[in-house]
From TrEMBL:
Species for this entry: Saccharomonospora piscinae
Keyword set, alphabetical order: Signal
Region (Disordered): 29-48
Subcellular location(s) of the protein: Cell envelope
Name the UniProt record assigns to this protein: Sugar ABC transporter substrate-binding protein
């Protein structure tokens, strides 16, 4: 049975906060106050107040500044909030300091994509103590206290990576696989790996594939991912038939090493995030697949959930977050929005361009321009 955050109690606190802030500033009402003039609500942007968003880093993936930031800003404005989207640049102290500032500012809702569960959980507790509801965005804080989580079905993300690898190696019985995984401090990385193994473990067990080594990479550090991969490759006599890389950043680091040994384009590599660089690598034949996660949907679901929380509308919040995620560390279930991810190979790169996540100008550069023409991209 899911534990329920006493949203009604916090709604009262939140309502009081909104009325106070409305009296003192431009922040809007949204406190459920019947008379808008009393809450100081003015039309247009920000009538529901400000939503603080803290993103984890930029080094691990181009998605955070390229997709999440602009799409969250647009979705939050569409719901009547003023967005304040910041990036902690991989620094836990900065993450905490940004949160302190947003809490002091009296944001209506705090949205956090944490560097790790420890800092995320601490920030969520502090915000809730100030009467500010929090949403875990993209990454669940294990042992945390946010009552809502918005992400993708991350086990499914891993299954798509596993299916891509199995597909690429289906005619190579006994093929040797190296796994370069995400940060052990990121619950998503654990879920991605779980999904990959749902597909690959039976193939390892049957001998259809052979696992050389599986290695998590701290902080998703792309450079370290490349160095570790090269060490494993060297220790395996320079032999590898396929590489499971947990996102495009790691995939590109692996491909750089493969190119050094003349293996790029013959050794399939998986990825995730459908970044411009990852899509270019797929068009070149260096990367086999990526996973497209329509971040616009993630941003819009977060904004709608934030609006329900800012208005203390528990029923609406629970209606939006109809899925459930397990938090084994906190021994609890968390109301969630878990969106569908999509496998992207060479033939479906066009979809990511057509949906406006990347531009043909960004993807179809120089050596892949002809391939783009053949595939009708741009
Ligand atoms: C994960 C995120 C992925 C991946 C990674 C690197 O938590 O869900 O999209 O890019 O972080 O930042």
């Amino acid at each position: 049975m899911r534990r329920r955050f006493p949203l009604r109690a916090s709604a009262a606190a939140l309502g009081a906060l909104l009325i106070l802030s409305a009296c003192g500033a431009n922040a809007g009402g949204g406190s459920g106050d019947s008379d808008d003039s009393a809450s100081g609500a003015e039309g247009g942007d920000g009538e529901l107040g400000t939503v603080g968003v803290i993103l984890p880093e930029t080094a691990s993936s181009a998605r955070w500044e390229g997709f999440d930031k602009p799409m969250l800003e647009e979705a939050l404005r569409a719901e009547g909030f003023e967005p304040d989207v910041q990036n902690a640049q991989g620094d836990v102290q900065k993450f905490s300091t940004l949160a302190d500032g947003m809490i002091a500012q009296g944001v209506s809702v705090l949205v956090i994509a944490s560097i790790n569960s420890e800092v995320g959980g601490a920030v969520a507790s502090k915000a809730q103590a100030a009467g500010i509801p929090t949403i875990d965005y993209d990454r669940l804080n294990l042992g945390g206290s946010s009552e809502y989580y918005v992400s993708f079905d991350n086990v499914r993300v891993g299954e798509l990576q596993g299916e891509g690898m199995a597909q690429a190696l289906e005619d190579e019985p006994g093929a040797q696989v190296i796994e370069i995984e995400g940060a052990p401090t990121d619950n998503n990385a654990t879920l991605f790996h779980e999904g990959q193994r749902n597909v690959l473990q039976p193939l390892y067990d049957s001998g259809d594939l052979e696992l050389v080594q599986s290695q998590p990479i701290d902080d998703w550090n792309n450079q370290e991912g490349g160095q570790v991969f090269e060490q494993i490759l060297t220790s395996n006599g320079g032999e590898v038939d396929g590489v499971v890389a947990a996102n495009d950043g790691l995939a590109l680091a692996v491909i750089t090493v493969l190119r050094k040994y003349g293996l790029n384009g013959t050794v399939p590599v998986t990825g995730q995030d459908a970044t411009a660089e990852g899509l270019r690598a797929i068009l070149r034949g260096d990367q086999y697949m990526t996973v497209f996660k329509p971040v616009k949907e993630e941003a819009e679901a977060t904004a709608k959930l934030a609006a329900a929380l800012a208005e203390g509308d528990t029923a609406a919040a629970d209606e939006i977050a109809g899925d459930v995620s397990e938090d084994p560390e906190g021994d609890r279930e968390v109301a969630s929005v878990l969106l569908e991810p999509y496998l992207i190979t060479k033939d479906s790169v066009k979809r990511v361009v057509d949906e406006g996540y990347v531009s043909a100008e960004d993807v179809c550069i120089k050596d892949v321009a002809d391939v783009c023409s053949e595939l009708g991209i741009g």
